[in-house]
Write a structure and sequence with these properties.
Number of helices: 16
Largest sheet: 8 strands, mixed
Radius of gyration: 28 Å
Mean pLDDT: 92
CATH architecture of the largest domain: 2-Layer Sandwich
CATH class of the largest domain: Alpha Beta
Low-confidence stretches: 1-21
Strand content: 15-25%
CATH superfamily of the largest domain: Bira Bifunctional Protein, Domain 2
Distance between the termini: 60 Å
Bound molecules: histidyl-adenosine monophosphate
CATH topology of the largest domain: BirA Bifunctional Protein, domain 2
Helix content: 25-40%
Structural class: alpha+beta
């Protein structure tokens, strides 16, 4: 095993062996590349993230949700128990490691189980119900990276605990659709399904196994291993080989009990009341095992390639399975990279905030110092302001102010200083005027806000 000692990484105190945490290609350590499937959000792009994050927060609050923050990692067992040990996420995709005390730790592969853990740990069920929570989190899955699929992605998610009524299923769907509408994202399809409850699933599993029994040898090895314990997972298999075998597979929706059927009909009524179109898609299974009754996905058909922007559903047994009191739950996770990708693909313009309102151009050390004072005055009234820190020529300072799209520049020169004035230049039309230092902040505030 290649081990590299790098005093730079640790800085002080000696050497640090870090071969296992460093990306390598052909034996060469990739110090200047993000790990595969991850990406930087650069300053030039971050405004898109702020726009999406601000929108989801605003709409969530408008729907009566409050934010919850949970750790980036949890005990591995929470995910194994919560998501299900025969899911792709748990079997193949988790970032799991032992910490220095030998505990098995996993970076969040999804957001629901941690929120359920927190709901139980802090007895949130003792507060007025329902509990309506939202979160914005990084999610880690060891998947094959491709456009819109990453090893670290970000989700906006919501979870509602304590409400059994299908109106709340419609409410979370409505929330997701409202967010897309507000951002201007179009060409969306809402697909809904009901995947039954433990009562009706038992019989269905038997029928499913009956159907799959003769096809077992043609299924992939993963599906073969799921046949006994979790046959419904097979419907969700991405392999073409398995999909060929299950073309006329019996589907849960056609075998649900009266309670599930009533719930599904209720959901449809509430969606109609919210004027939300939907397609019933009996093939939706979802990739996580905790779902009961409602399962839904919001997909887009951009450039002919279907992508899931948002997925969720009801999970009435999860709180109990994780050690809490019997409490129904429903929620969704919305991929933020995919939302931004849709905004870009659909050519939706996101307002780009400028870096500076005002840039102070100075000439000489005394002017620089005065500029520093003026900067504080401008910032104190809430204006975005900066000045040169690189000893640039006046011409270069103007050029920089122009590039940064400052509305105004303030010129502080030795002559003006003596008179207690500055020159204010409108960067759009080039007009200049002389202003007293005393009133520069109030004048600019009035003009710019
Ligand atoms: P999920 O369907 O696994 O559900 O993920 C939710 C959303 O995250 C997806 O619809 C997609 O937009 C995005 N996403 C998933 N994997 C990736 C990836 N590798 N790269 C980029 N984006 C991705 C859940 O995680 C559930 N916890 C949702 C939920 C909350 N259900 C009930 N409450």
């Amino acid at each position: 095993m290649l081990q590299i000692c790098c005093p730079l990484i640790l800085g002080i105190g000696g050497f640090f062996i870090y071969d296992s945490i460093t990306e390598r290609k052909g034996g060469k350590v990739m110090l200047t590349k993000t790990p595969r499937g991850t990406q930087d959000v650069l300053p030039a792009e971050v405004y898109k993230w702020h726009y999406v994050e601000n929108t989801v927060r605003e709409v969530a609050k408008n729907f009566g949700f409050t934010e919850i923050r949970t750790p980036v990692f949890e005990h591995t067992e929470l995910f194994v128990r919560g998501i299900g040990d025969t899911t792709d996420v748990v079997e193949k995709e988790m970032y799991t490691f032992e910490d220095r005390s030998g505990r098995s730790i996993t970076l969040k592969p999804e957001g629901t189980a941690p929120v359920v853990r927190s709901f139980i740990e802090h007895k949130l069920y003792t507060e007025p119900q329902p509990t309506k929570l939202f979160y914005i989190i990084p999610v880690f899955r060891y998947e094959k990276p491709q456009a819109g699929r990453y090893r670290e992605h970000h989700q906006f998610g919501v979870e509602v605990f304590g409400a059994i009524n299908p109106s709340v299923d419609a409410e979370v769907i409505n929330l997701a659709m409202t967010i897309y509408k507000k951002m201007g994202i179009e060409k969306l399809e809402l697909r809904i399904n009901n995947i039954g409850c433990p009562k009706c699933r038992k019989d269905y599993h038997q029928q499913l196994q009956q159907y799959l029994k003769d096809r077992l040898e043609h299924l992939c090895t993963t599906c073969q291993s799921r046949f006994e314990r979790n046959p419904m997972r097979i419907i969700d298999c991405k392999s073409d080989k398995c999909q060929e075998q299950i073309q006329d597979v019996p589907l849960m929706l056609h075998h649900i009990c009266k309670e599930c059927e009533d719930h599904f009909e209720g959901l449809k009524r509430y969606l109609k009341a919210s004027e939300i179109d939907y397609i019933v898609d009996a093939k939706i299974v979802r990739g996580l095992d905790y779902y009961t009754k409602t399962a839904f996905e919001i997909i887009t058909d951009e450039a002919g390639k279907k992508g899931t922007l948002c997925g969720g559903g009801r999970y009435d047994k999860l709180v109990e399975d994780c050690g809490g009191p019997t409490t129904p739950g429903v929620g969704f996770g919305m991929g933020l990279e995919r939302a931004i990708l849709s905004l870009d693909t659909q050519g939706i313009e996101i307002p780009k905030p400028k870096t500076f309102d005002v840039f102070i151009v100075t000439m000489g050390e005394a002017a620089n110092l005065k500029g520093f004072e003026i900067l504080n005055k401008l910032r104190a009234v809430g204006l975005k302001a900066d000045q040169d820190h690189m000893n640039r020529s006046v011409k270069a300072q103007f050029k920089y102010a122009d590039k940064m799209m400052a509305d105004y520049s303030i010129i502080v020169g030795e002559d003006e200083l003596a008179k207690g004035i500055v020159i204010l230049k409108n960067m759009t039309n080039g007009e200049q005027e002389t202003i007293s230092i005393q009133e520069i902040d109030s004048l600019l505030l009035e003009r710019l806000k």
